[in-house]
Specification:
With 345 residues, this protein is of the alpha/beta class. Helices cover 24% and strands 23% of the residues. The protein contains 10 helices and 15 strands. It is globular and about 60 Å long.
Length: 345
Amino acid sequence: MRVWEIGDYTKIKEPDGLALHIVERPNPKPGPGEVVMKVRATGINARDLTIMRGGMGPKPQPVTRVPLSDNAGDVLAVGPGVDRVTMTHYWQWIDGKWHGDMALKDYASNIDGFLAEQIVVPAEPLIKLPDSMSYEDASTLQSAGLTSWNAVICAGGAKPGDVVCTIGTGGVSLYALAWAKMVGATAIITSSNDAKLARMRELGADITINYRTTPNWAQEVLAKTGGRGADIVLNNVGVQEMEQCLTACASNGKVMYIGANPVNRSRTIETPAGLTRFPNLIMKDLTIKGIVVGSRRMFEDLIAAMTAHKVKAVIDKVFPFEQAREAVAYMESADRLGKVVIKVQ
C-alpha cells in the first residue's frame, strides 16, 4: 500500500516548507479487537499543518509519521458486505468527560494518521456512516465538524434565540454557522474578505463583520445586537483575540477557545497577548472553556443531526491522493473557503 510520510522537515529548503513524500509499506494486518480500514477520503486541518512541520507535543515528530486525522473509509472484512465507517482521532474518548491521558493516543500526532491507502484501527470507536453521506463529506467532520458541535451544541448549549459568534471562515466556523442555524440561533461571522462574507450570508449568516475594515469587531457585535452581545463566541484564531472575544459576550456568555496554535504560517503567537482592557468577568458572569474536539457519543449525535437536518459539508476542493502536497499548499492559501479533502481511493 502507499502512504505519505512527513519526512525530514528540519532539512527542507523548498518554498512550501514541506518534506511530505509518498512511500510504499506492507499491507497492515489487524490484531485482537482491530480492523483494517480502507481509507476513502481524509481532510486537512490547521493542526495537520503544525504536525507536518514537526509541531504538536514536546518531542519532534518522527520523519516516518503519516499525517492527517480526518477520515472516512471501509472496513475490510471477510465475508459479505462492507461497513462504511469513520472515527474520531482521540479514539479513546468514547463517552463521558475528557481526560488528558486520552491525548496519548492521537491519530497523526503520536500515532500514524490517515493519509494512507489502508490503516489498522481499533473497532470500538468506529461509527457507521449513513448511506446518504459521502466519504468526502464524512472526512470533514472529525476535527472541524466535531469541535464546533461540542462548542456550539454540547458545551455551548445553544438554543433558539441565542447569538453565536465565530471568528473567520475556516472549517470550524462554517460548521458552527450550520449548527447555530440548525437550532434557531442568530449567527454572526467575521472575515477580512467581503466576498467570503457574502458567501457566508448565502449559507445563512445573519450578521457579517469585516474585521479588516472594522478592527474593533467586538464593539460591532454589541452594536449589531442592540448592546446585548453574543451568548457563545468561538475563538478559532488564538489568544491574541481573547480580549475582543470577551468584550463581544453577552451577560452569562461563553468563550470557546479552540486550537492549540494560532492561525498563521509559523503557528506561533506573533504579537503580545496582554489583556490591557480585560472585561469584567464577574459583572458579566462569563466563562472561558477549552474545547478538545469531542467524544464518540458526540460524533454519533452529530452525524444523526446532520442526516436529519440535511446539513452538507462546505468543501472547497477535492484533490487526488497523489496530489497531497498540492492539497496542503491550497489549504494554506487565502483563496480557500471551505474544507480541503484528499480522495484516497
